[in-house]
Amino acid sequence: MKDGLIFENDELIYYKNGEPYHAGVVKDGEDIYYITSHGRAIKGQHVIHREMTNGILERGVYTFGEDYKLIPGSFVPPEKRKKKHKKRSKASKRKARIPHFKGKTLAAFGMMLAVLLVLLIIPHLIDSAEEDTPATVDRSGEEFYLPEFEEVLLCSNAAKQLYDGKITAEAAVADGAAYRPLSFDYSLKGSGGSLYLSEDVDMENARKYILPGNATRILIDNLKTDTTYYWEVRTAQDQYAGQFQTAKSTRFLSIPGAENTRDIGGYVTQDGKTVKQGMLIRGSEIDGLVEKNYFIPKDQVESVQKTFGFVYEFDLRGNSLYTGDYKSRLGDSVEHKFYGAPQYGQVFSHEYQMSLKEIFTDLAKPENYPMYMHCTYGADRTGTVIFLLQGILNLSEEEMIREFRRTGFTDYTFGRSNSMDVVIEGFNAYEGETLQDRIIRFLIDEVGVTYHQIESIRKILLTES
Predict the structure, then answer these.
(1) pTM for the predicted model, two decimal places
(2) What is the pLDDT, as a whole number, of residue 136?
(3) How far apart are CA 59 and CA 53, in angstroms?
């Protein structure tokens, strides 16, 4: 299993436990490198945020050479960093002011418009936990300050450290709430404009956000993690474009009236596949039947559905909770079903085997996605079913436990809970070299789930990395 810095296809890649790893600042002997998305070491001048310094460097701006190594003495405090330009031809000035974007290349039209971006509008994306100096422009054209952000973090620093396996769940949840929206800061003249945001460079299916002229910031909820986003700002007179990358982390979510909500997608399996985002969202109840505060307001349902497009409400509570003609809180077109799911050691009880079979039979149906899965708190029954599901998907046992304990960001007692230990111990009675093998053996031999259904679940939820 390879670990450390390794040259691969003329790129320097940092591996941890055999996988490319976004590690931030790393030290190899006397040499220092900066490791960003997909484990790549980088060259040139970059802003190093506090959570990426790993205690090796101060937060600030550093320059890395063609050999990827930190250039000694290149440190510049962020608040003092400015790019100065001597007088030159107009063509030369235009070239100097086009910001450098990583990832997919924008169309030539978009790149020309980026010139106007520097001169008239400097939207920039910040981690709200940091205190970086806002972008400013000297409109005389002699100098400007343009912050550079490697990635946008959509969760707390502690939640990111838990995702990376750097701290325990107990330490993470003690730091407070995990969710964080995207903060989009901007400066527009006149009456404002509109922001369009898309995962597609051609701006297909772009979401529209209003940018009021009397404001300088909007917050955007529920973006995907580890994803490149393309944006355009349009005003009555002009249009500007750019892109950014969100960091790889747990995708915590904000759904009005619901608690403990997060996407099971984004994780990398032990055989190198990625769990798709936006397919299965887990959380608390949304109808207030047990907890009156867990209730999506009627006027928020349309917005929730516009973001997630749920077609199925996978309700792990028992049907005795509501004996009338139940209608999903997510809308009349959304199918709802009670399952009466087991929690923890109940999975080995014969009285719950029919429920488990029904659960995994319906998880194997492509028409049931995207779905919202919940019990009352999204912790015990939901945590148990997701644990078994992640075993089918071949996540590591360590990651399966961490996902269970992430509920601790909502309720600290769940973060400390060892309730899943009885499930792991129970599977030791079944054949298989790994916990994942034993879960599948149990579902096939004891519950009656078919191999075809397991393969269908994998096909629905997994994609090649």
Answers:
(1) 0.70
(2) 33
(3) 6
